[in-house]
Design brief:
The complex is a heterodimer of chains A (249) and B (95). Chain A has 249 residues and is an all-alpha fold. Helix content of chain A is 65%, strand content 0%. The chains are: A mainly alpha (249), B alpha+beta (95).
């Protein structure tokens, strides 16, 4: 398998899995307005994933389609961050997960618009505006929850504490990240760390939340080693194609 | 969430530059910032607009339906108020 295929999947899988997680909340949001807001974000992310999977299928050149890649791979073949597969939990958990991810994804795509790869560059150019809104939405809600009532503050802090060790995996570069950066295709993760840290620090401070001190970060998702949650996500997401192979609608 | 924490807001959307804002519906929000963002998410998903106004519903004063006779009935038989008695020159459009 080639590096470009793997690198494209890494970006696409984050979008699909988080998009799927958010889609689980469709019809279950805390209020109608946020139900629609989260569904909008889910649709943005799934849309990004589709274009990337179409490209991955083309790069792979094995006669497969975007649907094969999304629906017929198993847990170890998915290269998404552990963060995006974490459960929706309560509204604070959902907001914090979105905030940590968007704080990474926006600066990542802002760099990806300089990629030498036409498709990755095109996806990034289109998605940057969507991501700016995701970051704004999740930041404002985290500030409202953190700086809100005693209960919302306590729940927001708990969500930050619980998800903290999943916040750093995105910025830990491995051989594939280094390959992509050296080739001018991908992003130098070191170069977005300052922006990421500043976003986290500023928003947590304004939300009157305490930034956890733990330095240890969970990792493995980018290499295909996942938490137990991804299997359940795939079981639901892939059910139709597994039960009725090649069905179309 | 009680209505006191999340009061009702009326939403007005301008669909294109040059047109006026039109009332499209209402939603709940804690403050004006949230109302604008909620309106963006609820009412502009299908490219309905280029501009949003929100106003808290309590700030709108409405006419009383019981007053509709004294308010609106007197205009009914005054057809001369409509500009329909003028001869239009040929070639005039958009009137």
């Amino acid at each position: 398998m080639n590096n470009l295929f793997d690198y494209t999947l890494r970006i696409a899988d984050n979008a699909l899995i988080l998009g799927h997680r958010l889609s689980e909340l469709c019809g279950h949001g805390p209020v109608l307005e946020q139900d629609i807001a989260m569904t909008n974000i889910a649709l943005d992310l799934v849309g990004q994933a589709r274009t990337l999977y179409q490209y991955a299928a083309e790069v792979q050149n094995a006669g497969k389609t975007e649907d094969d890649i999304a629906y017929l791979r198993d847990v170890y073949d998915f290269k998404n961050l552990l963060l995006v597969e974490q459960p929706n939990g309560d509204f604070a958990d959902t907001v914090v997960r979105q905030f940590f991810f968007s704080a990474f994804q926006l600066p990542f795509y802002e760099k990806l618009v300089h990629s030498k790869d036409d498709i990755l560059r095109g996806v990034a150019e289109k998605a940057v505006k969507e991501l700016a809104y995701h970051l704004r939405w999740s930041s404002e809600w985290l500030i409202r929850l953190g700086d809100g009532t005693a209960e919302s503050h306590q729940r927001a802090q708990k969500a930050v504490d619980n998800l903290w060790t999943y916040s750093g995996e995105a910025l830990i570069a491995d051989d594939l990240d280094n390959w992509a950066f050296t080739e001018g295709i991908g992003v130098d993760l070191e170069s977005i760390k300052t922006t990421f840290d500043k976003t986290i620090n500023d928003v947590l401070a304004e939300a009157t939340l305490v930034k956890p001190t733990a330095n240890y970060m969970q990792k493995g998702g980018k290499q295909g080693r996942h938490t137990e949650y991804l299997g359940y996500i795939l079981a639901e997401m892939q059910f139709m194609q597994r039960a009725y192979p090649n069905m179309a609608w | 969430m009680s209505n006191q924490e999340m009061p009702l807001w009326e939403v007005f959307i301008r669909s294109r530059q040059g047109l006026d804002h039109k009332h499209v519906g209402s939603l709940h929000a804690a403050d004006a910032t949230m109302a604008i963002e909620n309106a963006r998410d609820v009412y502009t998903r299908r490219q309905e607009g280029v501009s949003i106004w929100v106003v808290e519903s309590k700030h709108i004063t409405a006419s009383d339906p019981a007053d509709s006779d004294p308010l609106f009935e007197p205009a009914r038989d005054k057809a001369y108020r409509h500009p329909t008695f003028y001869e239009m020159p040929e070639g005039i459009k958009n009137i």
